[in-house]
Amino acid sequence: MTAGEELDALVDRVPLGESRHEIEGRTWSITRVDRADGRSSTIDGEELGGRARMSANVWRTSGGTVLKPCEMPAERVLELLRALPER
Question: What is the pTM of this model?
Fold first, then answer.
C-alpha cells in the first residue's frame, strides 16, 4: 500500500460530520467535511476535557493524496487517524 492509499483509507475511517472516538484513553470529538466531490477533506479534532487539538486538510490531486496538518506534525495526525476503528 502506498502512502497515498494509506492516507485515503485513514480518512475514510472518519465518518462525515461530527463523531466521538476513544483514542489513547481519551475522548475526542472529530469532524470531517468533504468538499469538491470528495477531492478535498478537512478533519478537525479536539480532546474533550483536555487541551489537545488537531486540524488537517487532505487534498486528492492527480499527483496523489496530500496531507497538510495545521495544529500538529503530520506523523501525529497519522497516529490519531490510525487509532480510529476501521469502518
Answer: 0.90
Name the β-bridge partners of 40: 35, 59
Q: Whose CA is closest to 45, among 57, 59, 28, 33?
A: 28
User: What backbone phi and psi angles, to 5 degrees, belong to 70?
Assistant: -115, -40
3-class DSSP state of 7 = helix
Amino acid at 11: V
Contact of 68 with 56, CB cutoff 8 Å: yes
* SS3 assignment, position 85: coil
Report d(CA 56, CA 49) in Å as an integer.
21
Q: Please give the C-alpha separations between residue 37 and each of 59, 67, 80, in angstroms, as whole numbers.
A: 11, 17, 25
Is pLDDT at 1 greater than 80 in this prediction? no
Nearest to 47 by CA among 66, 21, 72, 65: 21
